[in-house]
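Example complex used in Figure S2.
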Amino acid sequence: MPVTYPIVGMVGGGQLARMTHQAGIPLGIRFRLLAASADESAAQAVADTVLGDEKALGDLRTFAQPCAVVTFDHEHVPTEHLRALEADGIAVRPGPDALVHAQDKGVMRERLAEIGIPCPRNRIVADPADVAAFADEVGGWPVVLKTVRGGYDGKGVWVVGDTEAAAAPFRAGVPVLAEEKVDFARELAANVVRSPHGQAVAYPVVESIQEDGVCREVIAPAPDLSEERAVEAQRIALRIAGELDVTGHLAVELFETRDGRILVNELAMRPHNSGHWTIDGAVTSQFENHLRAVLDLPLGDPRARAKWTVMVNVLGGDYPDMYPAYLHVMARDPGVKVHMYGKEVKPGRKVGHVTVCGDDLDDVRARANHAADYLRGSITE
Amino acid sequence: MPVTYPIVGMVGGGQLARMTHQAGIPLGIRFRLLAASADESAAQAVADTVLGDEKALGDLRTFAQPCAVVTFDHEHVPTEHLRALEADGIAVRPGPDALVHAQDKGVMRERLAEIGIPCPRNRIVADPADVAAFADEVGGWPVVLKTVRGGYDGKGVWVVGDTEAAAAPFRAGVPVLAEEKVDFARELAANVVRSPHGQAVAYPVVESIQEDGVCREVIAPAPDLSEERAVEAQRIALRIAGELDVTGHLAVELFETRDGRILVNELAMRPHNSGHWTIDGAVTSQFENHLRAVLDLPLGDPRARAKWTVMVNVLGGDYPDMYPAYLHVMARDPGVKVHMYGKEVKPGRKVGHVTVCGDDLDDVRARANHAADYLRGSITE
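Predicted assembly (762 residues):
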C-alpha cells in the first residue's frame, strides 16, 4: 500500500496550478486538479486531473470529494458553490468569506476602508454622469473605472478622460467602481502567506513594472525602498491577511505615490505573478508556502537567496513556437531559469517567465529582459 | 492548438523519474512515463503515464512511439530492446553502447582499464577457489564480490573474508566480479552531464557518506578537498563521459584512498542520489541538466548556490506514515527543504531526502541530519 498523504485540490488549469503542482511534488502530497480541458497548462503535467466546469457544482463536488482541502488558481468559482463544498465538509482555503474580497473590488474597497487601509479614493458609480461627479470630487479627470468582478491583467479596467469615454464600462451590466488616478512613482507588491493557525510570513517587497496593464518585470527586492517603507508595505499586507482571515498566499499590489504614500491597488488570494521570482529566488517559493498554508503546515522561510532576483514575463509575440529560441537563450546564458507554461502563443498573452539571480542589478535585469525578449521574438540576437 | 514541445520519455516510475518530471515542468516540455503501476512514485505525479513492463518490447514501443527521446530512471532495460527502439527511429539517450557500462560491472571495469582510468584491482572470478586466488593476488582477504548485473544500494555486493563466505554470490548464476577491498579515507562522487553535441558540465565534487551500503548523507562541496584533487575527480568523470559517449547525467562514485589516490567505484548514467543536493543547492539541478542533455539543449550552470549544501536521505523506519512528522520538522526549521517520494515506508528504504543550504557546515549538517532522523522516527524531539 502506498502512503496516503493528503490530497490538495486546485480549481483551475492555468500556470499557477502548474507551478503549484511542481511545488507539491517534493512535499510528497497528492495534487488533484479541476481543469476545463486536458490541453490546459496544468493539466499537461498533473496526474490526477479531473475535467469539468468550475461553475458547475456537480463537477466541483466530484473533483473535491477525495480532497483534504480545496484551493484556487483563480477567483472565478461562485461563492454559493464554495459554501456548498464547505457544507459537504470540505476545507475550502481561502474560504468564501475571505475570497469575496479578491472577487469583488467593491466589497474589497469597502472592507479596506473599514479597517483603515490606505487606498485610492473610490466609490461605486451609477452612470457616466456619476463618473463626472466623482471626477470633480477627486480633482478632475482622468478617472479609473473597474468592473467590480471578472477583471484581470488590465481587462475590466479603463482609464477615462471624459463623460463620453466613461460610458464603456457600464455596457457589461455589472457594477462599476471609480477610483482616482493615482500619480504613482512606481508599483510595488507585498506578498504574504497565512495559515489557518494564524502563522504568517512576509516575502521581501518587490517592484512590479507594468506595460499596457500587464506585468512585465518584477525586481526583488524593490530597489531603493527604505526599510521603513518596506516594513509599512509588509504590515499592510499582514494586516489585510489577518483581518480578512485569508488562508494561503495573499498578493497586495501597491502604489508608491510621488508624495511618499503607499496605497493598496489590488488583492489576489492565490499565488501571484509578483511572486514568481520566489521559485528561484527565495528559500521557499510562494507555491510551496501556499500549499503549506492550505494544509496548515508550518510555513517555510520566505527570505531571498540572492541579493537581486529579477523575473520577466514571456509574452506571446509573432512566433507560435518558442522552443527553437531555447538554443540561443540557454547557450548565451547558462544561469537564466526558463519557465514555460505549455500555453498556446497569442500576442500579449503570458506564456512563461524567466528568472535571473545575481549581485549586480543592472546585469541581472539586462539578462532576464534579454532572455524574455528573445523568446518572444522581439529581438533576434 | 496548444504548443507541442518535444516529449521526453523516461522508463521507470521511481523517485528519479518523479524529480525529473518536476524539473521538466518549467522547461515546458512534455514528460511521458513508463511505470509498472499507478502507485509508483513518479506515476503519482506525471500526467502522461503509460503502465507497462520495461522488459516487454511491445510495452516499450507503445510508450516510446510519440517520444522525441527516451531516457531512464534505472539501468534495467535489456540492451536488445534499446537497439530495437533505435531501429524504430527513437533517440535513446544514453544509448545502449554507453549504458551497458552502467549495466554490467565487468564490461565497465574492462573499458575503464582500457582507457587508463584508475580502479580498484579487479577481475571476473569463476568460483570460490578463484576468489581465494584473487585474494592472494591483491594481498589477502577481505575481498569485495559483485554480481556484474542487477545490484544497487548494497544489493548484489558482498564483502567476504574467506573461501566459504565467497560461495554466496555464485548462487545467483550470474558472473561475479572480484575487487580488492580499498582502504579508503572516504567516498566522493563526481557528477557530470554531457550532451550529444559534446558539451559537458561538471558539478562540484561531493563527499558521500554511506551506512550499511546505502548513501546516508552527501556534502557539497566535499570538505577539505584540494582544488587539485577536485579537478582530478572532475577530469576522470568528464573523460569517462566522453570516452563512453554518455548522454545525460553521469555519476562517478569514487574512493579517496588513505594514500591519496582517486579510484572509480561505480558508474550510473542517470540522475543519481549523490546529485539530489543540486535541486536546492545548484543553479541548475542534475534533473534539469539531464533533460537538457537528452534534448541536446545547451546545459545549465552547475555551480553551487550556497557555500555548503547537505542532503540526507530519509530512510524508512518503524512508522509507516511520516506526514505527521512534517509539523515538527517544518516548525523547528523553516529553511529545511523536504523531498518525499510518495513511497511506502519499509525499513531502510529510501523514501525521501532533506536538504539544507548555508554558510556553517556543522550547523547545516546538524539541521539536515536532524530533519531526516525525525522524519524516520529515530529521534523524537
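DSSP finds eleven helices and 18 strands in chain B. Chain B touches chain A through 55 residues (CB under 8 Å).
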